[in-house]
Amino acid sequence: MIKAKIVGAGGFGGVGIVELLTTHPEVEIKTLVAIESVGNPISDTYPHLKGFCDLVILPPSDPAAQEPADIVFMATPDGVGMKLAAEELAKGAKIIDYSGDFRFNDKETYANYASRIGKPTEHAAPELLPLSIYGLPELHRNNINKKTKIIGNPGCFAVSCILGLAPAIKEKLITTKSIICDCKTGISGAGKKPAATFHYPLRYENMNAYKLAGHQHIYEVEHELSLLAEEDIKVTFTSQVVPLCRGIMSTLYGTLNSKTTENDIINIYKKFYGNNGFVRIYPSSSAIGTQHVRGTNYCNIVISVDERTSRLRIVSYIDNLVKGQAGSAMQNMNIILGLPEKTGFDRPGMYP
Amino acid sequence: MIKAKIVGAGGFGGVGIVELLTTHPEVEIKTLVAIESVGNPISDTYPHLKGFCDLVILPPSDPAAQEPADIVFMATPDGVGMKLAAEELAKGAKIIDYSGDFRFNDKETYANYASRIGKPTEHAAPELLPLSIYGLPELHRNNINKKTKIIGNPGCFAVSCILGLAPAIKEKLITTKSIICDCKTGISGAGKKPAATFHYPLRYENMNAYKLAGHQHIYEVEHELSLLAEEDIKVTFTSQVVPLCRGIMSTLYGTLNSKTTENDIINIYKKFYGNNGFVRIYPSSSAIGTQHVRGTNYCNIVISVDERTSRLRIVSYIDNLVKGQAGSAMQNMNIILGLPEKTGFDRPGMYP
Amino acid sequence: MIKAKIVGAGGFGGVGIVELLTTHPEVEIKTLVAIESVGNPISDTYPHLKGFCDLVILPPSDPAAQEPADIVFMATPDGVGMKLAAEELAKGAKIIDYSGDFRFNDKETYANYASRIGKPTEHAAPELLPLSIYGLPELHRNNINKKTKIIGNPGCFAVSCILGLAPAIKEKLITTKSIICDCKTGISGAGKKPAATFHYPLRYENMNAYKLAGHQHIYEVEHELSLLAEEDIKVTFTSQVVPLCRGIMSTLYGTLNSKTTENDIINIYKKFYGNNGFVRIYPSSSAIGTQHVRGTNYCNIVISVDERTSRLRIVSYIDNLVKGQAGSAMQNMNIILGLPEKTGFDRPGMYP
Amino acid sequence: MIKAKIVGAGGFGGVGIVELLTTHPEVEIKTLVAIESVGNPISDTYPHLKGFCDLVILPPSDPAAQEPADIVFMATPDGVGMKLAAEELAKGAKIIDYSGDFRFNDKETYANYASRIGKPTEHAAPELLPLSIYGLPELHRNNINKKTKIIGNPGCFAVSCILGLAPAIKEKLITTKSIICDCKTGISGAGKKPAATFHYPLRYENMNAYKLAGHQHIYEVEHELSLLAEEDIKVTFTSQVVPLCRGIMSTLYGTLNSKTTENDIINIYKKFYGNNGFVRIYPSSSAIGTQHVRGTNYCNIVISVDERTSRLRIVSYIDNLVKGQAGSAMQNMNIILGLPEKTGFDRPGMYP
């Protein structure tokens, strides 16, 4: 069995990959590391894991936390993975990092990102950046393979926006200056740490826009779209939070370069994503919502054309904790370990 | 006391105006008419009204349903008010109609609207259209007054979009071809009739876009904005439903005609709405959400400028059942009866 | 105008009484005191109060916080009111305390209560206890009047249980050893402080029993029921939390002393509560839920008899933040100020 | 592969078993039958099944609906399974029926049940009743085996109550006249048919008791408990609905026959359920809620003793759609097909 280690095992992203790996036929979780709830089985803190994963969560200082693994998930915030990666690589591991640390594979691009989000612009391990690849297999399949050492797992909003816009950008369907990403997320995207704004009584009947000055995922959206367009793209991006737990709905707008029908665009999207198992394309008449991707690694994309204003409008749905996080991580893991991409994803979501 | 009649008293919009009028110091509800739950006190069907309004709901066929009133609320769908209005007017009433029947005051405009939503283009009472005014006092204060006979109460999405965009359009801040209205509504906007898509288990953890082919409120948004701009405006409009009960959050985008700061725009908005008691303007750093307008007649407007893309972004918040329906109706009523506009609106919302 | 001061103005209970008093015709809020968000208008922290109450929240150390008032609400946890009461009384105020500090009017009973909840058994102001009355007017109307100096406002669960059981106990319908209170509360009962267990993602699809070892409200339930029964009563009490914001549903069980019909019991309850404006009695066939009391000061009581097991079953519904807290406080205030009991309660709840 | 047919495939119970069987290693779904959405792939109506189960739903009149299967799930309401069972048995199938049709294996008991719920007392296939077994393996393991022809799958409330009370009854810990079942369910228990009482706006902030005159599951609770006690047991049973989707929390009360500690009772329960893989026992200090069983086949049971009143209090948690329905069905299927009981249950629930 392939051995997995999860650093940051106590957050939603860490528990998410634990849940997925418990049924993976080729991988066995060997080590859980975190800075909270240490010293107890993870199933004490997350009782639903009882009998599925009862490993004790180790503090980073525990020698057993340093045991080598074949694959290490860094389910950690910005700035952690870049410090731990070299040592794990030296022990033979491949790394999948959830943060922005390895989403940009040269130090200048990283510095630009870091300055945009108000962080120190110097990367702690710049020599590793060329080893990393942005973990969106639907765009970078040619470069994600058994030789890959580090995956920069994408941000949740970014997955929904990039998958929703990539074919339109690649095929130059829309003008590059016209792009607006209006994104709504469920609350689990904010993580497990309690805060007034996510306290049930203050959230159950409330929706709002936030971070209007700029969300940390904009940069990677623009970076990936610019690579596809082969020109510099800037987007208007609005992050909004609505009272559900799981789900992102990103409504994406762009002005059409020429008269094009919904059917034409559906065909372009289907062709673009032809061999990708986790993207589904729907016409505008479909009754698709976040509940249809909940608990799954799918991205459902609804295509519509507003003929009166010559705009393309894409609605992109994902589960922020699966395709937006742990699911993408396992999908990337499968590929870089040489396993079939869908291994371990053999179940539909739970409904309702 | 001024006598009020409510036709369509059994829906959310009818109950909403009953709730508001129970505490209005100058108006007394005298007659409730509906086609469901007839023959019983409204407080049997809506027990929270017990002791506040215990009038029996009359069927339209009951002679008592024809008693004259000073003000008649037509809390009814398209096509009903236009048939009943003439008779009520003849008995001396003023009319506030919730539907699209009187939102356009000439028959050609009505016909355009009707054809857009797939209804017969002929109005049942075209001679009454010139008596009607679009019931958004913040824009039409000069024309809504004691002489007004009929108010076409605006649509909920329309209120949020028009109030959010009017100053920008009027002051030519944004290009008229660039407008996008990305609108999210709570579920009460769909009314009280059960349907699969609003069945709790299918809705609690679900959000989705709907009516991508065109929502019935687009036309009045475009009509009002075109009047302000003195040119023909078309917008891209997306209706989306999210799992909360009350609240609309409309995120409105337009390309700036020239470099303008957030502060400049805040000042323009504050000046535009200076004398209007139900609009509040906030900077982009504010933590405002739908919960802050819930149960109230306020429209909270957050201003932001995306300098990187030269776009104005407005987030407009209302309670769809108050400022988006019954509250606007009572506000209009106050004005056309010659009462202070805020009469009966003397309480804050309930929190949390 | 009567002058009111609110200590602990920043919590749900403090905001609740602010909301209610903004529309009270005889009372004016003059002073807000709290230990958080001080120095800013309360409407900065609670934007829905903008224009209704914009007083600055003062820290206790501010001299203006010591201004005399006619009525002081201590919306504070156990142990605060008992320390502040004497000084406010000396300045001529009457006091309504939300905590357990004044729910028991002799020091022995207080000591028993305190020991049950693991607090120091000595009261900080035992000389004031004889001045206080348990603030449930439906039971203590004869003793709550213009001479009353201190009200011990009842606990939310206690209100629902005591009102649900009082007539049955008083009329000796059920055996005193058989009483079970199965209570479910919305989350606002836990206050505004964020905690993991009330974090939206961990609560939206979760219900659970808690404090199985003993809830702090049991003692006052038993104390009040024992007074009515003129014998010592012990109950089994289960506190449970379910994913809604406002509302308590207490299902109360007792073994009938003799064969009695639902109708008999309805009549007994109606007679018992005859002159009390905030209690409504319903038969078992009624479709009553917490939504029918939300935002109101009512207690709705549904009566049923399980003939097969000779048990009385009462379901008692309140809004925990109104009849369970701020509403009872204002009701008590009205009585001890000599105002009609329903003053300021002239509106139905909001629906839906 | 073992061939499965699902009759009533379009409801929550039908979709639930489809979801579970898609990952079952030994069983293949071959036939879906229903009376709604017929003629289309089930994944058109339930898009989350796309790629997992795309079989067309057949109407009962379709000859293909009569194809033989090894196991037939009757995910149908009372009165359907009893009419279809004989024919399926004749074709060699085993049957798992979700309704009350086969929960009582003689015609007199069935008649008693039917009369209690106001249905015709005559069973349509009384000759089949002796072939059926009540499908709670934790109690009837000795009688559920490869020879079993028909399983009467238990009701959701019944599972939670019976599992919570069985050891206490069997070991005579509590007096048989003292039992109260206070049960709360999520809304999915009501099925997928929209109704006013489950319309999101009327349910999101509402909880209530219902069917106070008697719920259809009481009879089987009493029947099973009476078998265990070897005497006639009657319980007081209260059904309540709270605003979440999945989950039952049943709080169960009984007067202790003698002084017993929580630890003693935990040991008794653990011994009783020793070999049963889907029951977990917790002390009263545990922080267990419905979220910990959501999406799983587990029943979590929390034990507490109220020493002051000498009462045992059990809180029993299940997912009403899994252990309360489709999960129990698959567990029963595994046993009667001779497969390991946990086959196909190899994943934890999704969290949060």
Largest β-sheet summary of chain A: 7 strands, parallel
The CATH homologous superfamily of the largest domain in chain A is termed NAD(P)-binding Rossmann-like Domain
Compute the number of strand runs of chain A: 14
Global shape of chain A: globular
Taking strands numbered 1, 2, ... along the chain, how are they ordered across the largest sheet of chain A? 3-2-1-4-5-7-6
Oligomer: homotetramer
Determine the mean pLDDT of chain A.
97
What does the model show?
The structure is a homotetramer of 352-residue chains. Chain A has 352 residues and is α/β, with parallel strands linked by helices. Helix content of chain A is 27%, strand content 20%. The longest helix of chain A has 15 residues, at 156-170. Chains in contact: A-B, A-C, A-D, B-C, B-D, C-D.
Q: What topology does this entry show?
A:
The structure is a homotetramer of 352-residue chains.
Chain A: E1 2-7, H1 12-22, E2 27-33, H2 42-45, E3 57-58, E4 71-74, H3 81-90, E5 94-97, H4 107-116, E6 132-134, H5 137-140, E7 150-152, H6 156-170, E8 180-185, H7 200-203, E9 208-210, H8 218-229, E10 236-241, E11 248-255, H9 262-272, E12 279-282, E13 299-306, E14 311-318, H10 322-336
Parallel strand pairs in A: 1-2, 1-4, 2-3, 4-5, 5-7, 6-7, 8-10, 12-13
Antiparallel strand pairs in A: 8-11, 9-10, 11-14, 13-14
